[in-house]
Amino acid sequence: MAMGILAWIVVGLVAGWLASQVMRGGGYGLIGDIIVGALGAVIGGFLAARFLNMPDAVNGINVTSLIVAFIGAVILVGILQLFSGGREAY
Predict the structure, then answer these.
(1) Could you read off the pLDDT tens digit of each residue along the chain, which spans 90 residues?
(2) What is d(CA 32, CA 78) in angstroms, rounded to the nearest whole number?
(3) Three-state SS for 39?
(4) How would DSSP label each residue in 4-16?
(5) d(CA 70, CA 22)
(6) Whole-angstrom Cα distance, residue 81 to residue 75?
(7) How many CA atoms lie within 13 A of 24 on its CB side?
(8) How many Å is the maximal CA-CA distance in the chain?
(9) Where are the domains of the chain?
(10) Residue-level pLDDT at 85
């Protein structure tokens, strides 16, 4: 995953925000959405490499990276909601 820090922030922000909207959360704020999206990119990248044979699925600011990060962020938000008792995070 040779991605610059700016690309991680941009992909993380977009993926985290989209995931919080899709999962009916209140969002996690700017920094929280970036963190959720960046962690989602790691989760999504791992899953894409493991199950879809896509070792470089998250590799910059592009549609594939956003989709993979979004899917990973949705999984992460789902796990966070599961452990928080279904409460929305604000």
Answers:
(1) 445 777 777 888 888 888 888 877 666 777 877 788 888 888 888 898 899 888 887 777 888 888 888 898 889 888 888 887 655 544
(2) 15
(3) helix
(4) -HHHHHHHHHHHH
(5) 10
(6) 10
(7) 3
(8) 36
(9) 5-83
(10) 67
CA angle 19, 32, 14 (to 5 degrees): 45
CA distance 3 to 19: 21
pTM (predicted TM-score): 0.79
CA distance 55 to 69: 14
- CA distance linking residue 51 with residue 71, whole number of Å: 14
Give me the sign of the Cα torsion angle 45, 80, 25, 31.
Answer: negative
Half-sphere exposure of 72 (CA within 13 A, CB side): 29
Structure tokens, 82: 């599961």
Q: What is the DSSP letter of 23?
A: T
